[in-house]
């Protein structure tokens, strides 16, 4: 429950809209109850043949209350939804603020794709908190209290029964079912997870399944899991249906008891019969406003889980140090840094580095090569302080990396990762995050360098650069980095999607721009490395060979063999 | 919606049950109104005593019970209908997906299809569990009420009949007029709602460029834009419900007015009837309004239904199989490909006029530029993709007459990206075959594939869990496990899709050695990317644009086919021998 404290506080910041929605909700409820109550009373009065003006009062009352009811319901809906969206906006900003310092370290715990879409989904779920969890009990209770107050003028006992009814339908029954729902939901989630695994394997392993004739078996297993999932979903749905029915039944029975009491009192002379119809109508109508409470348990559970997941994801991991400490040093800008790695060992799931020692002198150009899984990207991630908690020492310009302020490090680095992100916006927007003091001519110039001059600066990019090919995205990332002009270049397979000719031309521009800078280039391809100051060969997390191109080729060791294999591969595009 | 309705109608008994329950509900609603009105009338006007009306109170209790019970069972039936539909849909979709041979090559669309199977099926639930029961109820209950009203006090019935149609008419008009506007706003909404995820996904990039903090404002702005766009759509919805509420309030006011006038002025109506009408009227209009909200619940399923329909209607010709069985243990069969071709829907063909004979134990290399159809040819030979033209003969028998299991028993396929399933290493290797593979056989296969030492160095050895949620496996290790599968299965035909980029040296060597060893007891057909493969091949099939341009040995093709020569000499600094 304490997970919901945060969202409750956030909700309370929308004071004005909150107040207005509750006010209008209250008015709607009162108007509706009054409408039916007065029609009950006036019909009873009409049966005793009263003067004509009763009729006019009757008509006026009903029209007015009807109009008020419909009108204020509009107001209730309008303000409550506006409040919801304002809260959603605050939620997003708030979680962004919480998440921002944790990235990219947080992707150690979760796979980034999953985590982020889950966070977005959970934030969306929480927008229901106000409308379906926070709001209904308040309005429901207010309407009830007013009704009880009003009824108490006619009969204390009936008001008491109404009070009991309020407690049952607004508090006890929803609470009980909310509690039971927790267990049910857990089963649903589990069975869904199982089904999801089977579905993924069915599709991604289709070919192997077919070849090894396991497809039918897989199908059966999938159907089994699907049936289990369906059963759990049924159970959950029936649970919710049952809780709704119980709530409805209790409210009907309360109305029945009120009628019973009313009849008893009228028959015994303690209550004027003219009010009987009115009391019946009141009790029938007031419980209609308890109806949203029937769905309350499942919304409460949804919100609670979403809030729990969010607070879990954004909790500060004490093992991940963030740069809050004041002794954080900064890198002097515009100066090509030197980097030293001494006996660095690191392990995280399948990412491993074993006893790596490398020196990157200031202004040097180093290439790191090796098969996939050899630790190249892990090494870069450690240098960028994306991964932390390693054994051994990493020093940048003599400063140990754990005393270095990340932001200062990144400010001074041109980084290209294997997955480069582009935002929904124009080409210009995406390029200008490198440097916002840049002119259009410079942008066009750099696009020409990467052979993307067929793109115009106003061209739209979809989310994740979805309308660009892999090669275009890489070239755009290179363009972005060419604009930034920092003294340290960290490049992870920057040209893997490009053909040899384009790669050559881009390397030419890159190395020209990086003439005096320190460059660390991870490459899968062994071409074009002849002019590097040093080549580091990695395999299974360790440095296997190191030296210049000439030295390594003469050695006829690992690098030489890799080169042989690469040359025997004919790629024909 | 059309498809969904048909699915619902298939479950006739349950629909009948819904109708019966709706009748009971209707009767209960009417009964409730009747008892309430009767009791008040007797006590208030007829001054009867408590004991007199006790039976009526009991009756009322039973009616209330019936009302709740029928509502519950109606919902329950809806849930059961939804479950059955979802179960059947998943089965149909799965059957469709299994028999669609292109499944093998459409790796890009995999995520979408998985989502249809999982999520889209979930999303149609509300159509059956909420909309259908409500639709049945709102067709029956208002009619029932109307009938009783006409029987008691026709004038009220008249008012109801005149005003009732306004509700659906209004809903339709408003829906129609605002369709364009809401579609516009929906587009805006989708664009803006994706912005948050987009920003989160790019947080690393933003931080590396020092732009993270500025994004806060951008998020706030886009959220507000989202809010405004959504509120525009909602305002329309709210206005329409306002009008509907207003209409029903007005109508109920008219009814109340009518009975009041008759009571006061004309005095030609009893209190009982008046009160009875007054209680029934709201139930009538509520039932009609209920349909509106249920309709929205149903609407939500339409998108999902469309996706499901698309998948079920997708054209896909499955591979044909027959009954003939290949004799085991006689070595690899002769494969003859005659005028084989494969084309996608529409005109695009991937393979045309392929003629080749692959003799037992032959080492065949398929070569060509990317997009030439090499993988398609391999898939066709494997029997994963059907031919649209021509035939394949296996030892003289048409392959479409062969028993499917018998054929696949002879095939091993080593792809560039082998798939590992969640399970143990042993289970993944044993996929290779007979589920009764012994531990020794698995270890032997692992040794031949060069991973025995690695596996034995792990804490749980062969029982180490891998795949989703298990130990991460590197690319090279995956290839070796795939090799182990092939060694375990001991097939007479090996299909190999050579990697285009270098793996680690160890795996490279193991791959070469393993293929050499497997070649001693099998026919090996390779999509080749390495020089040594084509140099050592007995026969090379050179493809260009889906057609077989030439076939022969490496020497022969070098001399006679210029395109081939060009392709194999154009490497990073290498020379063809």
Write structural notes for this entry.
The complex is a heterodimer of chains A (573) and B (577). Chain A is α/β, with parallel strands linked by helices and 573 residues long. In chain A, 60% of the residues lie in helices and 11% in strands. Chain A has helices spanning 3-12, 15-47, 53-99, 112-126, 128-152, 156-204, 206-211, 215-267, 276-286, 296-313, 376-383, 406-411, 427-432, 440-449, 470-484, 500-513, 549-555, 558-568, and strands at 339-348, 351-360, 365-369, 391-396, 399-400, 413-416, 425-426, 460-461, 488-492, 518-523, 534-539, 542-547. In chain A, α6 crosses α10 (296-313), α8 (215-267) runs antiparallel to α9 (276-286) and α14 crosses α15. Chain A is elongated and about 115 Å long. The mean pLDDT of chain A is 86. Chain B is an alpha/beta fold and 577 residues long. Helices cover 64% and strands 11% of the residues of chain B. In chain B, the strands form three sheets. Chain B has a six-stranded mixed β-sheet, sandwiched between helices. Chain B has a four-stranded antiparallel β-sheet with strand order 2-1-4-5, with helices on one face. Chain B has a two-stranded antiparallel sheet with strand order 7-8. In chain B, α2 crosses α5 (125-152), α5 (125-152) runs antiparallel to α6 and α5 packs antiparallel against α11. Residues 572-577 of chain B have low confidence and may be disordered. At the A-B interface, α2, α3, α4, α6 and α7 of A face α2, α3, α4, α8 and α9 of B.
């Amino acid at each position: 429950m304490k997970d919901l404290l945060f969202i409750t506080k956030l909700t309370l910041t929308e004071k004005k809209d909150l107040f207005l929605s509750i006010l209008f909700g209250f008015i709607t409820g009162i108007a509706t109850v009054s409408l039916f109550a007065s029609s009950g009373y006036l019909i009873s009065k009409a049966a005793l043949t009263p003067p004509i003006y009763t009729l006019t009062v009757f008509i006026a009352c009903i029209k007015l209350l009807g109009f008020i009811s419909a009108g204020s319901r509009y107001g209730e809906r309008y303000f409550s939804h506006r409040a919801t969206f304002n809260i959603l906006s605050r939620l997003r900003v708030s979680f962004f603020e919480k998440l921002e310092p944790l990235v990219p370290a947080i992707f150690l715990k979760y796979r980034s794709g999953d985590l982020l879409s889950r966070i977005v989904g959970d934030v969306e779920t929480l927008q229901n908190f106000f409308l379906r969890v926070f709001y209904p009990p308040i309005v429901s209770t207010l309407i009830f209290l007013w009704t009880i107050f009003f009824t108490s003028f006619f009969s204390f006992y009936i008001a008491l029964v109404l009070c009991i009814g309020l407690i049952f339908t607004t508090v006890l029954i929803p609470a009980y079912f909310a509690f039971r729902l927790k267990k049910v939901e857990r089963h649903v989630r589990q069975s869904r997870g199982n089904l999801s695994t089977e579905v993924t394997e069915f599709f991604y392993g289709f070919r192997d399944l077919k070849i090894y004739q396991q497809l039918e078996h897989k199908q059966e297993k999938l159907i089994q899991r699907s049936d289990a999932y369906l059963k759990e979903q049924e159970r959950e749905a029936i649970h919710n249906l049952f809780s709704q029915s119980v709530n409805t039944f209790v409210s009907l029975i309360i109305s029945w008891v009120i009628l019973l009491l009313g009849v008893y009192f009228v028959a015994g002379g303690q209550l004027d019969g003219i009010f009987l119809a009115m009391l019946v109508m009141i009790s029938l109508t007031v419980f209609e406003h308890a109806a949203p409470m029937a769905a309350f348990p499942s919304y409460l559970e949804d919100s609670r889980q979403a809030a729990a997941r969010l607070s879990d994801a954004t909790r500060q991991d004490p093992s991940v140090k963030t740069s809050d400490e004041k002794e954080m040093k900064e890198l002097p800008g515009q100066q090509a840094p030197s980097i030293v790695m001494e006996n660095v060992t690191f392990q995280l799931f399948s990412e491993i580095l074993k006893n790596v020692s490398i020196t990157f002198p200031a202004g040097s150009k180093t290439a790191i090569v090796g098969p996939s899984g050899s630790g190249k990207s892990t090494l870069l991630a450690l240098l960028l302080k994306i991964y932390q908690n390693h054994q051994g020492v990493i020093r940048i310009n003599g400063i140990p990396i754990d005393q270095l302020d990340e932001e200062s490090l990144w400010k001074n680095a041109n980084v290209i990762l294997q997955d480069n992100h582009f935002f929904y916006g124009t080409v210009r927007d995406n390029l200008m995050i490198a440097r916002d003091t840049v002119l259009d001519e410079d942008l066009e110039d750099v696009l020409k360098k990467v052979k993307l001059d067929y793109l115009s600066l106003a061209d739209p990019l979809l989310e994740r650069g979805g309308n660009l090919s892999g090669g275009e995205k890489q070239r755009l990332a290179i363009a972005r980095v060419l604009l930034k002009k920092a003294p340290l270049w960290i490049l992870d397979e920057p040209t893997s999607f490009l053909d040899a000719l384009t790669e050559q031309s881009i390397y030419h521009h890159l190395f020209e721009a990086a003439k005096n800078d320190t460059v660390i280039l991870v490459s899968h391809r062994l071409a074009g490395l002849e002019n590097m100051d040093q080549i580091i060969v990695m395999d299974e997390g360790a440095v296997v060979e190191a030296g210049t191109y000439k030295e390594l080729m003469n050695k006829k060791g690992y690098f030489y063999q890799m080169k042989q294999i690469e040359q025997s591969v004919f790629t024909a595009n | 919606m059309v498809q969904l309705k048909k699915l619902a109608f298939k479950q006739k008994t349950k629909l009948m049950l819904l109708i019966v329950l709706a009748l009971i509900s209707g009767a209960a609603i009417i009964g409730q109104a009747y008892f309430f009105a009767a009791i008040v009338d007797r006590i208030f006007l007829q001054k009867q005593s408590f004991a007199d009306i006790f039976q009526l109170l009991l009756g009322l209790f039973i009616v209330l019970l019936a009302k709740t019970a029928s509502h519950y069972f109606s919902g329950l039936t809806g849930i059961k209908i939804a479950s059955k539909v979802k179960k059947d849909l998943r089965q149909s979709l799965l059957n469709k997906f299994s028999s669609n041979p292109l499944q093998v090559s459409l790796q890009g669309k995999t995520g979408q299809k998985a989502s249809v199977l999982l999520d889209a099926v979930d999303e149609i639930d509300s159509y059956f569990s909420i909309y259908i029961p409500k639709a049945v109820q709102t067709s029956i209950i208002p009619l029932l009420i109307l009938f009783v009203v006409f029987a008691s006090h026709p004038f009220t019935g008249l008012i109801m009949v005149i005003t009732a149609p306004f509700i659906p008419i209004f809903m339709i008009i408003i829906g129609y007029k605002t369709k364009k506007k809401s579609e516009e706003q929906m587009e805006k909404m989708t664009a803006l709602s994706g912005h948050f995820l987009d920003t989160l996904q790019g947080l690393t990039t933003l931080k590396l460029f020092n732009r993270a903090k500025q994004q806060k404002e951008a998020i706030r702005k886009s959220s507000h834009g989202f809010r405004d766009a959504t509120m525009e759509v909602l305002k329309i919805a709210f206005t329409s419900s306002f009008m509907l509420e207003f209409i029903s309030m007005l109508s109920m006011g008219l009814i109340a007015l009518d009975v009041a006038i008759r009571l006061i002025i004309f005095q030609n109506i009893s209190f009982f009837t008046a009160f009875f009408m007054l209680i029934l009227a709201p139930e009538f209009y509520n039932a009609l309004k209920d349909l509106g909200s249920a309709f929205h619940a149903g609407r939500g399923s339409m998108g999902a239904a469309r996706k499901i329909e698309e998948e079920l209607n997708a054209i896909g010709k499955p591979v044909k199989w027959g009954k003939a069985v290949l004799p085991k243990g006689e070595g690899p069969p002769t494969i003859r490909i005659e005028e084989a071709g494969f084309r996608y829907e529409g005109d695009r063909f991937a393979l045309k006029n392929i003629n080749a004979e692959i003799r037992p134990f032959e080492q065949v290399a398929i070569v060509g530029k990317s997009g030439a159809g090499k993988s398609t040819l391999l898939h066709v030979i494997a029997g994963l993709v059907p031919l649209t033209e021509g035939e394949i003969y296996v030892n003289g028998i048409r392959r479409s007459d062969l028993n499917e299991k018998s054929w696949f028993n002879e095939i091993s396929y080593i792809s560039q990206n082998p798939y590992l399933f969640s399970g143990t290493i042993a289970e993944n290797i044993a996929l290779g075959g007979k589920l009764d593979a012994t531990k020794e056989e698995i270890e032997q296969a692992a040794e031949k594939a060069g991973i025995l030492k690695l596996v034995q160095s792990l804490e749980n050895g062969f029982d180490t869990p891998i795949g989703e949620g298990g130990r991460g496996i590197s690319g090279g290790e995956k290839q070796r496990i795939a090799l182990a599968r092939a060694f375990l299965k001991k097939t007479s035909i090996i299909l190999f899709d050579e990697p285009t980029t270098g793996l680690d040296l160890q795996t490279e060597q193991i791959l070469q050695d393993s293929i050499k060893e497997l070649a001693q007891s099998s026919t090996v057909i390779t999509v080749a990317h390495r020089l040594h493969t084509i140099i050592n091949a007995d026969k090379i099939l050179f493809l260009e644009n889906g057609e077989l341009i030439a076939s022969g040995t490496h020497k022969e093709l070098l001399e006679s086919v210029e395109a081939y020569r060009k392709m194999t000499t154009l490497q990073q600094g290498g020379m063809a021998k």
